[in-house]
Automatic annotation (TrEMBL):
Residues 113-166 form the HAMP domain. Keywords: Kinase, Membrane, Phosphoprotein, Transferase, Transmembrane, Transmembrane helix, Two-component regulatory system. It comes from Nonomuraea composti. Its EC number is 2.7.13.3. This is histidine kinase.
Amino acid sequence: MRLTLVYGVLFLLFGTGLVGITYAFVVHSTSALVSEGQNDLIAAAGSAPRGGRRLLEIPEGLTAEQVRAQAESLRTQATRRHEGELRSLLTQSAIALAILSVVSVVLGWIAAGRVLRPLRTITRSARRISATSLHERLALGGPDDELKELGDTFDDLLGRLEASFTAQRQFIANASHELRSPLTRQRTVVQVALTDPDAPAERLRAVCERVLVANEQQERLIEALLTLACGETGVDHHEVFDLAEITGRVLHTHRLEAYRQKICMDAVLLPAPASGSPHLVERLVTNLVDNAVRYNVPSGTVHVSTGKVGGHATLAVINTGPVVLETEIERLFQPFQRAGTARVGQDGGLGLGLSIVKAIATTHGARLDIRPQPQGGLHATVTFDSVAL
């Protein structure tokens, strides 16, 4: 209705303007002709010819005064007729404008309905689609205009929501399984111990140690899940930190583990100032270095470097290890996924390392690039926006 009123009012305004301009042009042109004819009549009644001859021959038997009176009468008649024709023109134009205004309202209603039809389709679909029907799409046809672009944008939004809901359901299922496994082991160990009322103290002590190990695994998993949630939530307060300093602390805590596994670890740490949450960034570096050490080969290497590349703070972690296919990289970013193993591994890892790395990098606006090396292992690079210390 509003669009129809807008169309009708705009047509009425432009139509009124067109009639006004046309009326002004007609008045101007016809008034000049009428004035010229009146001057000819007056000149014809005079004694002096115009251009060497009279414009109007004086009938015989009429005096000059009678001719002038007749000319004046003709001029008055011509003026009245001219005014009448102008009024008739104005009236007919107003009637035509009124008729066309009604027609424009009808056509405006039809045009507005056709224009708003895709919007109604989007509205109905938005009301109908829920979390259980995110697979539906609008798939608007027609020309590649703004409305089709809006429909395509809505379809893209539904696609992202569907992927997010699917990942969330999968994550909840995996997290439930990971949390249930240690609880099941604890309950089984305790029940077995309780079935033997004469169990020696050494056996009960071993049971308690196994329960503590399972409890430690649960604590690590819960801490990792909390870190993942914090990384996906965002950073409320940004602090300036040096990526080289954080990386140095992380490497210091991992050197003993690398020595035990006979892995050669070297580092080139150049100043790399960045902004964000130092705690989350330390977790990011820890997970990358931990993965590089944990998923390596005997007598392997881990090379870590920091610095400024193209004006951006950059962290690079390169390690040897088993060969990883290019197609597996994207899967490794999903929670509880490991390369070349089942969903639940026996290497002590939780399968959340790279998921946390990706979440922290995303919330800091950093670019994460992980690619496999031909001879085995991974090459991970994280690029932050650099700031001045």
